[in-house]
Specification:
Order of helices and strands of chain A: EEHHEHEEEEEEEEEEHEEH
Strand order of the largest sheet of chain B: 3-4-2-5-1-6-7-8
GO biological process, one term (chain A): cell morphogenesis
Domain Septum formation inhibitor MinC C-terminal (chain A): 105-202
Structural class of chain A: alpha/beta
CATH topology of the largest domain in chain A: Pectate Lyase C-like
Distance between the termini of chain A: 56 Å
Strand content of chain A: 35-45%
Number of domains of chain B: 1
Function (chain A): Cell division inhibitor that blocks the formation of polar Z ring septums. Rapidly oscillates between the poles of the cell to destabilize FtsZ filaments that have formed before they mature into polar Z rings. Prevents FtsZ polymerization.
Radius of gyration of chain A: 23 Å
Number of domains of chain A: 2
Largest sheet of chain B: 8 strands, mixed
Shape of chain B: globular
Family (chain A): Belongs to the MinC family.
Order of helices and strands of chain B: EHEHHHEEHEHEHEHHEHHHH
Oligomer: heterodimer
Number of strands of chain A: 15
CATH architecture of the largest domain in chain A: 3 Solenoid
Number of helices of chain B: 13
Largest sheet of chain A: 6 strands, mixed
Subunit structure (chain A): Interacts with MinD and FtsZ.
Strand order of the largest sheet of chain A: 5-7-9-11-14-15
CATH topology of chain B: Rossmann fold
Distance between the termini of chain B: 53 Å
Helix content of chain A: 10-25%
Strand content of chain B: 15-25%
Number of strands of chain B: 8
Chain lengths: 224, 264
């Protein structure tokens, strides 16, 4: 690391404990590696009485996984107790990538609904409207506009809708314009779109458990 | 204290001005004091549809620039006592008015009138934003074609953003025969896509165009289904529940009548 660079991790002592200032302009893995370096070297510096640690992220938001990684670095020193993790504006966490988030309402022409993680939309997506998510998209309503699942490259994401008649579907980097026969042959029942061999395919909902066996529910009544 | 209702559509040529004029007159016919406000500066035509073009002395921009009193600019309708028109300027353009002025104007008009019908220009630019800014309610006019529905949907989204509560939709130029054979969306389809309340369906009829051409809005004279539809819309605006009238349903009714009498 060059001398000209501002350190990615600044440590300050306050009367309440230690303040870790993490540079927001550096990629987070780089910040973590510097943090690791600083915590591992000068290790005798860290050994002492229990100290409260306050971490300031600046303008950055981190995911739960990134937080976990950071906490692991601190866990090598038992006396450093993470008290708070703060960001300048609002919540330090990006919306959880785990679990599913609920949103209600109509996405109209010209509107864009962006989301991190899996999204359950209670309402319609009208032609000209866009829903974008890093995870899967489930629409309890009619999907008539554009849906883009796996926006950051997650090719296991799926798109499902009560009525799947989109103007365009995108999963990860694949774009698909629905062929005309979709609407006629498969309007009955619920359908979902998924990525297979670099192409988007549409299938009936009850085939999902076969296509994605990892998310199939298992009957475990008799296990106990 | 009256109510300001903006009539908008996004797309041009779907019948905003015709709808404003006819609903305005229908409201005036029920005894309410109504002002029609044309905000389409530079492309005014509400006055032409109303047949009041030759009576204009001052206009909207004159009122804004305080060249005249507001009451001097109001053109009284030649048929209805309780109906006035505040025409837009034809020689200026949309940049000659701003949101603050129009809000003030609408607030003033609301003091005097029971209903202020604001005729909005096509598009979603400054003219639209001005027209919408002072409104309490919105009517979105659309025809049952995809292009028009797309724009209406966009406009409803923008109205929600501008905090105009609960826009209602009027389906104009509806041809039930075409809807039946799939050349046009049917009413239920339109309502389910737009996901807003339906205010009325105006059947397509050449008399609507003819009467606009003559400057005698259809709701005044003709006993056509379109005139009936506008009157029903005016009643619904005043909170009455009026059953939906469709050309097709009416025919069904007559058919049933005939069956009762043993003709068919």
């Amino acid at each position: 690391m060059g001398k000209v660079l501002k350190p990615a991790v600044n440590i300050k002592g306050t009367k309440d404990g230690l303040l870790f200032l993490l540079d927001e302009s550096r990629p987070f893995p780089a910040v973590l590696s510097e943090l690791k370096y600083k915590l591992e070297n000068a290790s005798n510096l860290w050994d002492g009485p229990d100290t409260r640690v306050c971490i300031k992220l600046g303008n950055r938001q981190i995911t739960r996984d990134e937080e976990k990684e950071m906490r692991e670095l601190f866990s090598t020193h038992k006396n450093l107790i993470i008290h708070t993790i703060e960001a300048d504006h609002g919540k330090p966490y990006l919306v959880d990538d785990q679990g599913i988030q609920l949103q209600a309402g109509t996405v109209r022409s010209g509107q864009v609904l962006e989301h991190r993680g899996d999204l359950l939309l209670l309402g319609d997506v009208n032609p000209g409207g866009t829903v974008r998510s890093t995870g899967s998209i489930f629409v309890l309503g009619a999907l008539r506009g554009l849906a883009h699942a796996g926006g950051e490259g997650d090719d296991s994401a799926i798109i499902a809708a009560s009525s799947l008649c989109p103007t365009q579907l995108r999963i990860a980097n694949v774009v698909s314009r629905p062929p005309d026969e979709w609407e006629t042959s498969e309007t009955s029942g619920m359908n979902f779109a998924y990525l297979v061999n670099g192409q988007i395919a549409v299938d009936k909902m009850h085939h999902l458990s076969r296509i994605r066996p990892d998310i199939e529910w298992k009957d475990n009544r008799f296990k106990r | 204290m009256g109510e300001a209702i903006v009539v908008t559509s996004g797309k041009g040529g779907v019948g905003k001005s015709t709808t404003s004029a006819n609903i305005g007159i229908a409201l005036a016919l029920t005894g309410k004091k109504v002002c029609l406000l044309d905000t389409d500066v530079g492309l005014r035509n509400l006055d032409v549809l109303m047949g009041l073009e030759n009576r204009i002395i001052y206009d909207l921009v004159d009122v804004m620039e305080q060249n005249c009193q507001m009451n001097q600019a109001l053109v009284k309708d030649k048929r209805c006592e309780a109906l006035y028109l505040l025409p837009a300027a034809q020689t200026k353009d949309k940049s000659s008015i701003n949101t603050k002025q129009i809000r003030w104007l609408i607030a003033e008009l609301r003091e005097q009138f029971d209903y202020v019908m604001i005729d909005c220009p096509a598009g979603i630019e400054m003219g639209f934003k001005n027209a919408v800014s002072g409104a309490d309610r919105a009517i979105v006019v659309t025809t049952a074609e995809s292009a028009s529905i797309r724009d209406a949907d966009r406009v409803i989204g923008l109205l929600e953003k501008e905090k105009v509560p609960q826009p209602k939709v009027v389906i104009n130029r509806f041809k039930s025969q075409m809807a039946k054979d799939g050349g046009m969306m049917d009413v239920d389809e339109v309502v389910s896509v737009l996901a807003v309340d339906l205010l009325g369906v105006v059947p397509d009829h050449e008399d609507v165009i003819r009467s606009g051409h003559l400057g005698e809005p259809i709701v005044l004279h003709k006993k056509t289904p379109a005139a009936k539809a506008y009157k029903n819309i005016a009643q619904r605006i005043q909170g009455e529940a009026v059953p939906l009238l469709l050309g097709e349903k009416e025919r069904g009714f007559f058919k049933r009548m005939k069956r009762w009498f043993g003709f068919a």
